[in-house]
Amino acid sequence: MRRFLLFFALLSVAARPASGPGPMPAAVNGPLLGFSVSGSEAQRGLEARFDALLDPSRLDAWTREMTDAPNYVGSPKSKANAEMTARLFREWGYEAEVVRYDVLFPTPLERSLELLGPNGYRAKLDEPVLAEDASSAKRDGMLPPYNAYSADGDVEGELVYVNYGVPADYEELERLGIDVRGKIVIARYGGSWRGIKPKVAAEHGAIGCIIYSDPRDDGYFQGDVYPEGAYRNEWGAQRGSVADMPTYPGDPTTPFRASKEGVERYPAREAPTVMKIPVLPISYGDAQPLLAAIGGPVAPMGWRGALPITYHMGPGPARVRLRLRFDWSTAPAYNVIARLEGSEFPDQWILRGNHRDAWVFGAGDPISGHVAMMDEARAIGLLAREGHRPRRTIVYASWDAEEPGLLGSTEWVEDHAEELARKAVAYLNTDSNGRGFLGMGGSHALEPFINEVARDVRDPQFDVSVQDRARARARFEGNRSVGVSGDLPISPLGSGSDYTPFLQHLGIASLNLGFGGESGGGSYHSAYDSYEHYKRFGDVDFAYGVTLARVVGRATLRLANADVLPFRYEALARHVGRYVDEVTALVETVREETERHNTLVSSGAWVIAQDPRDALIPPDLEPAVPHVNFAPLLNARDRLAAAASAVDARSGAGPGDVQALNETLYLAERLLTHQDGLPRRPWFRHQVYAPGYYTGYGVKTLPGVREAVEQRDWVEAEAQIVRLAGVLDGFSASLEAAAR
Ligand SMILES: [Zn+2]
């Protein structure tokens, strides 16, 4: 995100600052997707009134109040924030309840890390109080830096530096003959979701894992450090979950079931997604003595961070002892669920959520998004009192226990799966919010819809829409798929926030929205993600908080009031077609790489291309890549394109049996799921979008086929092609029926 700072500086001399929101140009005032001409006019009037009800000073006051004590799941402050949120929702006219689940939430009893030799060092593992940040002095009840769902352990061994600790890094280690079996690895943050690092380390036989924040990533290499600047200082550390979320999120002890009294649970330490080795996050202050003590080969150029040392890979001579012990209790997670019943279609639900729990104070993550959601809900509640009750039911959710692994949302979704499968029209998610550019991710059936919304909301600093500002950024960065007009492509969703159970478990069309790109920094999951930090370096005047409320509130109101639900399937068919092209091409890339590799190895060129002092071990020959039959998938792609055009034409034609059409439109995404889920992870049912098994948050589209190809499992690839083609055909059949 930091690189956008330069962009912002350049743009600010070229563009005229806006004097504030005014009327939109006439060109965009045509009928809205799913509304008649007169309905669009009424809806736009309602939205103008909605905008006028939003106020940044409320966002500021709520942020201060909700972050005045540590508010992680199970803390007294988290419960107080839940009660406050529920009380406010009731004041605004919602039926609000606090829904409790009892979830596994380990907290540290013992954390110690010692360098035993060649010299000694005891890691501080502590973020000191800063005079400039009053919050940092509130030590009472603060969770120290740790990784939730690490194993207990007391391990001792030689250190190996593994770069980001992703599978490609272990291939490099193997070439150098470095084996991590029985060793403790140290990886830097970045390159993947953090939980991948200990998972891959354990798969390779490591007995412990240390993850540190290199200053190159979010410290002094990026900018001045806190409290002088926004970036991570010497002792700042990144907390976070290391549960194996790409297998399933939520309470590790209760996959597929809600964590309520009497539910059957895995024993805590044996739950499948609990990490098998001890893992600890540390600051770069604590990492430097450890890294400096590692010998062995110098790390490849791409592995080096910004510490003033030469990075070596090991193993040893550095030896460390890592001791971790946790309290494996359950904690109460308090979701707030607030409902505003629809006047005409009470059984069609527009769901809208943001998590409320933090690791420490969480002014940025997640309260900046939560307060925007609150003001949006307040305004919609007031509009209902003024006689503008939404036609469909709106359900707001303030999630607890997102940080340890989407527990609040996942348990609620598992609890209400059957009802949600019938009634949920869409789920709109936000999380941390900053200043800058609108990020849009989600189901591609909603791409035209959310673009239309973004076209109708103005950027608070420039006299353009938030869509055009996001477009300018994408074009500036050389994204060739973005034109001077038309819709911006929205990103497919992997994981990392509460949309996952809705989208990837139940197949509910989802969007994830938020601003960022200007307000860089390094407070993420540290004690310094405080009100003080956010007011200096975040969205300081909450202008983008209000803008987020304008975007997501509009989306919520339009979905709630549209005659014809604004799902459009040509965009989805186009993106799926592109993903099909990608996985087909990927097989050819793998074939070419395999042939090149085998020629290099068998000819002996691989050996003489090296520096002999490195004593590299030549790799094995790889099995040849067979031909893969993509015909079923190519046929399904063509049928999908035709079906999507037909149903979009029907949706655009307006009246008729709109109720039956609407049901097909919002239930269609369910048909992109398969009841058996993905290979080795049945909880993840969506066949188009999933978090990568080896990337974590990073998305894999057409995951069953793509990951089989990436893993070179050709038997599985063929089976997944047939399955995916069947899923797409079922989806197309439903659209074809609706078009008729
Ligand atoms: Zn968050």
Description:
It is a single chain. With 740 residues, the chain is an alpha/beta fold. It has 3 domains: 4-104 and 331-561, Aminopeptidase (3-Layer(aba) Sandwich); 111-328, Glucose Oxidase, domain 1, CATH 3.50.30; 569-739, Up-down Bundle (Transcription Elongation Factor S-II, Chain A). It has 22 helices and 18 strands. It has helices at 4-14, 37-52, 56-66, 76-91, 167-175, 196-203, 215-218, 284-292, 363-385, 407-415, 417-423, 447-455, 466-476, 499-505, 531-537, 543-561, 569-603, 605-608, 631-652, 658-667, 703-710, 714-739, and strands spanning 95-104, 107-117, 121-122, 147-148, 153-161, 184-188, 208-212, 240-241, 279-282, 319-327, 330-340, 345-355, 392-399, 424-429, 436-442, 510-517, 689-691, 699-701. The strands form 4 sheets. Strands 1-11-13-12-14-16-15 form a 7-stranded mixed beta sheet, sandwiched between helices. The chain has a 7-stranded mixed beta sheet with strand order 3-2-10-5-6-7-9. A two-stranded parallel ribbon has the order 4-8. A hairpin with a 7-residue loop joins strand 17 and strand 18 (699-701). Helix 2 (37-52) runs antiparallel to helix 16 and helix 21 runs antiparallel to helix 22. The chain is globular. It starts with a helix and ends with a helix.
Kindly list the characteristics that best describe this protein.
740 residues; alpha/beta; Aminopeptidase; Glucose Oxidase, domain 1; Transcription Elongation Factor S-II, Chain A; 3 domains; seven-stranded mixed sheet; 22 helices; 18 strands; 16% strand; globular; disordered N terminus; binds zinc ion
